[in-house]
Amino acid sequence: MTVKIQSSLILSRLLPVLIPAMLLPFLACSSGSSKKAAEVILPQAGKVHEHISCKSNTLFTYALYLPSGCSNRFSNSGKQRRYPVIIAFDPHGDGSLPVKLYSSLAEKYGFIILGSNDSRNLQSASESEAVVQAMFDEAGNFLPIDTLAVYVMGFSGGSRVATAAAMYRPYVRGVIGCGAGMPSGLQPPNYKFDYFGIVGLGDFNLSEMVALDKSLGQMNFRHFILEFDGIHGWPGKKEIEKAWAWHSFNLVKDGRIKKTDSTIVLFSASMTADYDSLVKQKRMLFARQNLAFRISCLEGLADVSPLRALLASLEASPDYRLALKQFNDVLEKEQKEQQMLMDALYSKDLKWWKYRLGKYRDNRKPGLTPGDTLMNHRLLAFLGLFCYSNANALLAQVHPEQTRQVITIYNMVEPENPEPYYMMAILSARQNDTVHAIENLKKAYDNGFRSKARAQSQPEFEILKQNTAYFDLLKRMQ
Asked: Is 58 helix (H, G, I), strand (E, B) or coil?
């Protein structure tokens, strides 16, 4: 499954060739608006800017990286170099996180990356849409972007936001979806786009992404789902680099940029060496992904019939069939375990949960396979998110004992996460228990909570505002 392109030199030669400067105005960013921006002084290129206010809506901010060759002035009416753009959405509103992670790729391959500081999980559809539109308005009207190379990217809930943005905007060319698929409850997409999904083998959304591969095929979307050795988190630069290479090959196929045989030869040579290494290690599922990735990148640009023949031979081999069966058996078992855990949240006591969680964490158990270990990691991550969602919903209601039970289980699942402590502080404050409210807020701080603005705006903490311990905590926060 993981495809490791061992020489960054290959891609460093490939991608700049595949990304030309375009000189087309961005006409479709603002619905119903044809207003052109006056000359804009751009932020310093070659540097990550963590908080820039959106000019069309100053309530929103974003992080930005412009490649170092970018001019410091821009006007929609002028003629200057334009760059492909990736608009990124983090599930916790930390736009600087993906921008910092991938700024070196933006510099290396010449694209602009900006990340929303306002898009986060549990927003309403209207709140999310306002944030998304502000980002497109900013990119289209105030940055030197190539209108025919507009991409969105997201992780987890941010991946769903990014995909939803592409579903209803004809000018979005492609998506890089990390750790989650399409948003639930929406109608089929109004527009097609290229979709590159990335998911770790330790990610609790692995089953979803495996199913998405089939669904996108049925909808005849050009797509690829990349699996790698990782957990539920923003993927590494190597995975994003592969996504960018795949999207870039698609630009060649669509006639947007010129085909060069030398880049194909270099790419194929690197991938062949990687394939041989994977087979030697008996990593058969990853070897298959290597072939599938090559075919997806090169089909229409080169003769892929030898690759297809090799793929058929690999899939017929006993080693591959055994690896695939083991993989599917684990996914089936995992789905049953997830359903059992969801049913148990409100029906099992804390003693049961302590035993169950200990079972998932005990990776020294005899007979435990690597696939089982990864499954247990995924189940713990799934349960953490499930508890978080249910605890949030319960906090909005008036069921203190049930809420306390779910938050306690959440804390047992993720003891180093500050969120369950923060939730318990809210619950204690509601019950006028200032002692435990302060105690839990301090535990949240000790485990990494630093959002001073959130604590100050939390209505339940009004009763703490005469407490010196509360103010001492606020002083230590950002």
From this structure: coil
In degrees, rounded to 5, the angle at the alpha carbon of residue 266 between the alpha carbons of residues 179 and 311 is 60
State the DSSP H helix or E strand holding residue 473, giving kind and residue range, or none if neither.
helix 468-476
CA–CA gap between residue 211 and residue 136 (Å, rounded): 30
CA distance 464 to 461: 5
Contact 275, 290 (CB under 8 A): yes
CA distance 351 to 372: 23
Select from 201, 321, 229, 223 the least CA-distant residue to 4.
Answer: 229
**3 state SS of 71:** coil
Amino acid at 385: L
Per-residue model confidence as pLDDT tens for the chain (478 residues): 433 333 333 333 333 333 332 222 232 333 333 344 478 889 999 999 999 999 988 999 999 999 998 988 887 776 788 999 999 999 999 999 999 999 999 999 999 999 999 998 878 889 999 999 999 999 999 999 999 999 999 999 999 999 999 999 999 999 999 999 998 766 677 889 999 999 999 999 998 999 999 999 999 999 999 999 998 999 999 999 999 999 999 999 999 888 899 999 999 999 999 999 999 999 999 999 999 999 999 999 999 999 999 999 999 999 999 999 999 999 999 999 999 999 999 999 999 999 999 999 987 777 778 888 889 999 999 999 899 999 999 998 878 999 999 999 999 999 999 999 999 999 999 999 999 999 999 999 999 998 888 899 999 999 998 899 999 999 998 6
Backbone phi, psi, residue 205, to 5°: -95, 15
- What CA–CA distances, in Å, run from 176 to 23, 182, 240, 305? 24, 11, 8, 27
DSSP codes joined into one string, 260-328: -HHHHHHHHHHHHHHHHHHHHTT-HHHHHHHHHHHHHHHBTTB--HHHHHHHHHHHHSHHHHHHHHHHH
For the domain spanning 349-476, the CATH number is: 1.25.40
The residue ranges of every structural domain in the chain are 8-258, 349-476
- Measure the CA–CA gap between 205 and 379, rounded to whole angstroms: 10
What's the start-to-end Cα distance of the chain, in Å?
A: 41
CB of 460 within 8 A of CB of 433?
Answer: no
Unique residue bearing structure tokens 């969120």: 419
**Per-residue b/e over 46-74, b at no fewer than 16 CB within 10 Å?**
eebbbebebebbeebbbbbbbbeebeeeb
Question: Cβ atoms within 10 A of the Cβ of 82, count?
Answer: 23
- Residue 200: burial class (beta carbons within 10 Å; 0-12, 13-18, 19+): buried
CA distance 199 to 214: 15
Fold exhibited by the domain 8-258:
Rossmann fold (3.40.50)
